Amino acid sequence: MSESVRSFIAFDIESDAVLRRVAAAQSLLAQTGADLKLVEPKNIHITLRFLGNITPSMIEKIFEEMKRIQFTPFNVQIKGIGAFPDLRYPRVVWAGITEGADQLKSIFSQLEPRLRGLGFAPDSKGFSPHLTIARVRSGRNKAQLARFIIENASYDFGSVAANCLRLKKSDLTPKGPIYSTLKEVCPQQ
Fold this sequence. Notes:
Helices cover 28% and strands 38% of the residues. It has helices at 16-30, 56-66, 101-117, 142-151, and strands spanning 5-12, 36-38, 45-54, 74-84, 92-97, 130-136, 156-162, 165-173, 176-185. The strands form two sheets. It has a five-stranded antiparallel β-sheet, with helices on one face. A four-stranded antiparallel β-sheet has the order 3-1-8-9, with helices on one face. The mean pLDDT is 95.
């Protein structure tokens, strides 16, 4: 019996400056007193598609489809803080993406039918380019959290190059997830 692999497709954030800005914003978020689970800066990424548990034999099939995606490296500007689904009932606090959002949507729209062809169900949430920086665990200090988000709606995290589309593995541990790259597609400029 083969072991399943929890996986997703993403672009990593490979900029220490951007990750420092994320950590600074998270520190300010924590000061709201809201009940948050902050995402470790080393785990921050742009998820294109969460795949769930896949078999090892599926890894190669997904990789073959990833290689067919048309894109060249591009710049991603990370700007703004918001919440899903909204400020009244925040579940996720995100950093927004301004420049590069159209390229990310294009990659998602190329990827989605290819994944369906491999038997994956459609992504029920659709695709909204963002970085998850915190998860909201309860309604504690929700008003302070909402105020912080409104006041930082244009927080500038900086920009990063999106060079390599990666199939990532997520190992869940008591201390949080550990991500590793299974496969990557890095087109030339």
